[in-house]
Give the backbone structure.
Amino acid sequence: DALLPAPQSISILSTNMKHFLTWSPVIVQGETVRYSVEFQGEYEREYANGSWIPISECSLTTATICNLTEDISASVAYKLRVRAELGATRSQWGTTKGFFNRAMTSLTPPQLRAVADGHHLLVELADMGPSFQFRVLYWRKGQETRVQQKVLREVSSVVHLDTMEAGAEYCVKAQTHVQAINRSSSFSPTQCVRAQGDKSMWLV
Amino acid sequence: GACRVSMSMTEIRAGFTAIKANIQSRDPIRTLSILSHPHSLHKVKSSDRCCITYQLFTFYVDKVFKHCRTEDSFVNRKISSIANSFLSTRRKLGQCHEQNNCMCGEESTEKLKQILANYEGLNVTSAAMKSLGELDILLDWMEKSR
């Protein structure tokens, strides 16, 4: 086994509660090297003799990336390892340095679009998965001290925020919150829209 | 004082639902229950709820999950997910225990003795698989008594 080097540059990329293991390819001229990935949670380390659990979707894969999201589903410290395989030859395991906890994921501001639909202030939010809630702040421009808030636990594509006064400008911004790790993203850039002017005609 | 712990019930429930049929099919003795014999968890007094929850999480972490390894990789991954979620939640419950917000009354102590007796009455693999198969009983009780 020593002929096949262990994968190097093993790291975890985690954004918005989606977690991926990546590593550098092991190059063997004229050959297709495959890889297998296993994970170990705190439970396995402390209660199951340090056992490792294979991820079947990343067993004998030629890719150098593996989606861990389904398996890293508890807020404990995980370790990951990957090895190279070529026929019957297997490399040593390459293991992540330190531990990974999903609380370390980086949270990006939500993508939102403020919409003025006549006198109605609407907001469109991109769905980010079941772990995410949204905190939407909105206010009439110039009345920054009277900010209103709406917390959305489930995202339907368009959300009605308020009825606007004719011709007035309203602003919106939002952040995500992940209850499982009790963290929030930073706010999205503020977007402002103007309500439709009043069309009613007064006959004198 | 009250013991308020945030936990990912949805994630645990989803993980269990994905393997429930598989696990329960490995339990031939359907007439016996570990968690509900002789009395249902629903009979537990509200003052004892925190203690029972903490002790049951300890029961699952210390005794059950480690004996549930199967030949099925998908099932093993879901069991790992549930076990690590239980470990994380038990740690939070433990903090309540230390702050004396999770007192164990006579009734809960008796109930736990009964559960352990039911468990020890079977061989360890059968007992572990049955206990895992009864996880929805625990989750239902926890959700109802929130």
User: Anything to note?
Assistant: Chain B touches chain A at residues 6, 8, 10-11, 15, 61-62, 65-66, 69, 73-74, 76-77, 80-81, 83-88 (CB under 8 Å). Helices of chain B lie at 9-24, 49-64, 73-98, 106-120, 124-133, 135-144. The two ends of chain B are 15 Å apart (CA to CA).
